[in-house]
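[job 4471] stage=fold_predict status=RUNNING
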Amino acid sequence: MSVPYDGSIRSVPAPLVERARRLAAGELTPVRPRHASTVVLLRDGADGLEAYVLRRHTSMAFAAGMYAFPGGSADARDAEATVGWAGPTAAEWAERLGFGAEPTARASVCAAVRETFEESGVLLAGPDADTVVADTTGDDWEQDRMALLGRVLPFGELLERRGLLLRSDLLAPWDHWITPRVEERRFDTRFFLAALPAGQHTRDVSGEADRVAWMRPSEALASVERGEMRMLPPTYLTLASLAGLADVRSALAAATSRTIRPVMPAVRLAGDGAEWVLPGDESGAGDIGTGGASGVGGSESGPAAQDEGVLR
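[job 4471] inference complete, writing structure tokens
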């Protein structure tokens, strides 16, 4: 599929161009990516499907000033089997997400739910397999959220104390992106969709963001093209894949038949500059294991589709 990427999406920052040259010359060893999860929260707005996006602070070490979805690295405690759970099992998620080990799949799903709560105030959990928390706006919830952010409170302990189960059935797998080998900070990230639970509201609570918004995917893409918003390729392409869907129900239905393959953008060196090679390009940023574009890309050593990343 040919995707009309905006010019800013193609642009490789100057420091990365130099790293790409050093990597191509064998002077650098790629950083091993950390497992991470990202959740695209969706709701039905007045004009159709809307997605929740936040802008990362300009002082952040990774993707500063970029619009993204709630998400972050998986914590080793996310893999603990004691986390209360309802919905598809860790074994089922391991098969769906391409993991070789159940604990890694459990960590990925748990991180998705935990990071969504930390960065938006939305909690995909309930007292049983058929219900979900209706309100997380109280001061006591804010105290718990801050304790999670400070890594003082394990997510499993929060659920147990409140008598809740993680609702893994509220997540729908959508994509798998691996940060390019040229980056200093790398993530092996599973992307999920989730509908905003009835009764819950997103809150401007994230310490990592300075702006948040609900936007139609096509509106967000147009803002990027006008230079009003900046996004990394995975965010841009995820929104592009959702732009033709009418509502939340359609998006979740599309997820059930979606083929998920690990994708890692490559860098094509050209003269004094470089550009990203992305999915849909003729030469291909590739699925892991199939090689990449001429330049700096290609496959990781080992089965990246399974447990290539690490838990922090």
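[job 4471] summary: Residues 1-5, 287-295, 298-307 have pLDDT under 50 and may be disordered.
[job 4471] exit 0
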